[in-house]
Amino acid sequence: MSHLEVNIANGIAYLTMNRPESRNALSMEMRAQLCDALHDVERDEAVRCVVLNGAGEHFMAGGDVKGMGESIKKSSEEIRKEFILRIHDLHPIMFAMRRMPKPIIASCRGAAAGAGVSVALACDLVIAAEDAFFTLAYCKIGTSPDGSSSFHLPRAVGIKKAMEIALLGDRFDAQTAKDMGMINFVVPTDKIDEETEKLATRLANGPTHVYGNTKALFYRSLESEFESQLQAEAEYFSDCASRQDFKEGVTAFIEKRSPVFTGK
After folding, report:
1. Which residues, including other chains, have CB under 8 Å from residue 197's CB and lie 6 or more apart?
2. What is the pLDDT of residues 103-152, one digit of tens each?
3. Residues 59, 112 contacting (CB under 8 angstroms)
4. HEC states along 46-111?
5. Are 171 and 213 in contact (CB under 8 A)?
6. Where are the alpha helices (DSSP H) in 147-207?
């Protein structure tokens, strides 16, 4: 059985982590398959939005802790070597998500724990069911965070709240996550698939190239100086202005109608 299911329909690529028996814990196979899938949908011009979700009742309950059981029997030096490689194996996924010139939505139900939080935070938007819950939880197994959560979490919630979440490892519900700025939308549990599709469809019908440029601008702003950011704005705006969707958008505004974007 594949650890990741990929379905593409109506401009939306659904990437479904598929280990429901383990709450979709992030196996080595899932990492490789997710990385490959992200590269594939990035190149697929028919895909204009990506949804990342989990099979069954949960989003993703972190790394495969049970699979780590054998590793901890090794010497300290062997453990260090193994786990630095394990963690680096996650990085191509995070780079691919950041680079993706299309919006990525995390659709969360049930548990998002440990690396599940990290992966959700790495998405551009997060929609969660009312019954979803979140916990960074790394401290519960005696380790520090990975999967880019140490980058994204402080920027989402502020350094003091990020410290609280990471050092205490407490569990909190979807509304609390939204109030803190970790996620964007909370919807009734029985409507999560429907509301995710609505959001994804809205984005898939939008100006895809514009979304890619907007992502690039916002993410670079986290580390850019003011002058270089303004220069980037000028370059990205002029790039968008040279494309068909800008012509359509301006024409639709003048004609007082809704634009019909093609993503080009």
Report:
1. 12
2. 999 999 999 999 999 999 999 999 999 999 999 999 998 999 999 999 99
3. yes
4. CCCEEEEEECCCCCECCECCHHHCCHHHCCHHHHHHHHHHHHHHHHHHHHHHHHCCCCEEEEECCE
5. no
6. 149-157, 159-168, 174-180, 192-204
Extents of the domains making up the chain: 4-204, 208-254
Per-residue pLDDT band for 77 (boundaries 50, 70, 90) equals confident
Domain 4-204 belongs in CATH node 3.90.226.10: yes
100-133: b or e for each residue (b if 16 or more CB lie within 10 Å)?
A: bebbbbbbbbbbbbbbbbbbbbbbbbbbbbebbb
Using an 8 Å Cβ cutoff, are 96 and 123 in contact? no
Could you report the per-residue pLDDT of 144-197, keeping only the tens digit for each?
Answer: 999 999 999 999 999 999 999 999 999 999 999 999 999 999 999 999 999 999
